[in-house]
Amino acid sequence: MEKQSETAVAEMRKTVEKLGSSTEKHGDPTLMRFLVARPMDPNKAAKMFVQWQKCRAEFVPLGFIPESVIPDELNARKVYLQGITKAGHPLVIVKTRRHFPPKDHIQSKSE
Q: Which portions of the sequence form the region Disordered (predicted)?
């Protein structure tokens, strides 16, 4: 990583801590995604990062989606849960050809 990027990441970490959150579970590549999304502005990136953490905690409180939440997809053989990779990431295989959108789904059309 360049010196400018390293400085921006360090500044973002400090700003996130000031906002009452933590970056200890996330590496530099994750923080760089937020910096790139907010043209290397550590303050804006930190605010976006904290909002993302809150959203993630609300929608995925366990840190993963348990099998009990997606039994229909598992039974339809759309999704296969394969365990954890050597790096500790969940491994999921999705067969998109078996997914069909619901017919009663309302779509808004803009004119």
A: 1-25
Both tokens of residue 84?
């954890």
Quick: pLDDT tens for 71-103: 887 788 888 888 888 888 878 888 888 777 777
Same-domain status, 19 and 51: yes
- Does position 61 have pLDDT exceeding 80, yes or no? no
Tokens representing residue 85 in the block: 């990779």
Is the full-model pTM beyond 0.70?
no
CATH number at residue 15: 1.10.8
Question: Please, what is the average pLDDT of the chain?
Answer: 84
Residues 6 or more apart whose CB falls under 8 angstroms from that of 12 comprise: 23, 31, 34, 35, 42, 45, 46, 49
CA distances 8 to 5, 22, 29, 96, Å, are 5, 16, 12, 39
Phi-psi category of 88—alpha, beta or left, where left has phi over 0 and alpha has psi -120 to 50?
left
